[in-house]
Amino acid sequence: EELEKLPNIPAIAQANALQHTLTQILAQITQINTRMDQMETRMDRMETRMDRMEAKLNALSTQISTSEHNHMARVQNSLLARTTDRLEPLLNPSTKTAIEGYPTNPREITTMEDARLISVLEQLGLPTNGGRLAREKRLRQSIGLPPIAG
To answer: What positions belong to coiled-coil segments (predicted)?
Structure first.
């Protein structure tokens, strides 16, 4: 019977209230930690998306600068007067690197081995179908040269 009166003693009542308050604070801290973990997860996902967007923007920038370079090269190539004049080389649109086997002058296109001609077309991202003359014509057009008369 006397033990039942213990919660009524002010010190014990205050201790019980304090314990209840601490329990509530700990529950709130747990909720805050959970929310922080969720926010961190969201931030990680956003960072991953941003990294992907940056990679896509870098690739797009590479494609644009390569396209600009190739456009200028085509303009210069279209102004060549002789078949022995030096061609301005185009770059691979995907990698922005020099095209391996690229002809040095317009005359060289007609003497290129088939495998080399096909390789250059592939590096330019062009189809390789058709016969020899069709592939030569496609390469000439792609690098800015006028069609061969005849």
So the answer is: 22-70
